[in-house]
Write a structure and sequence with these properties.
single chain; de novo design (two linked rop proteins); about 75% helix; about 0% strand; elongated
């Protein structure tokens, strides 16, 4: 794996922006008072760029792939929590769909990155 600074990865930038958006969203209304869900959704959102950064700095394609899968799992967790937040009226359906679309885009990017790294390193 060529050593690229994780801050140069578009995937990291987009996922970090998503985490910032989630932090801002969870400071509003009833969401701000639900400490449990607020903390859980923030942890899931922060996990995505954090695992991309950690995987990148591990220095091998195999390790990067492992951490990309963790990031992908955190995205699924985040989407689940967003649905719950919507159903308890912490966020609107429009907010849910907007953020879910970003999550899906990031998830697709992660999937493509995993595929490229796997093929390049012949990892199954």
């Amino acid at each position: 794996m060529s050593k690229t600074n994780f801050k140069e990865l578009l995937l990291w930038k987009l996922s970090k922006e998503l985490a910032v958006e989630i932090y801002k969203l969870t400071t509003e209304g009833m969401f701000a008072k639900d400490y449990s869900l607020k903390d859980q959704i923030r942890r899931a959102a922060v996990s995505v760029p954090s695992n991309i950064a950690e995987g990148n700095d591990r220095g091998s394609d195999k390790e990067m792939i492992r951490f990309l899968y963790i990031s992908k799992g955190s995205l699924a967790e985040l989407i689940t929590q967003l649905y719950i937040a919507c159903e308890v009226d912490y966020i609107t359906e429009a907010q849910l769909k907007k953020i879910e679309a970003k999550c899906n885009d990031i998830g697709a990017m992660i999937g493509k990155f995993i595929k490229v790294l796997s093929e390049r390193s012949n990892i199954k």
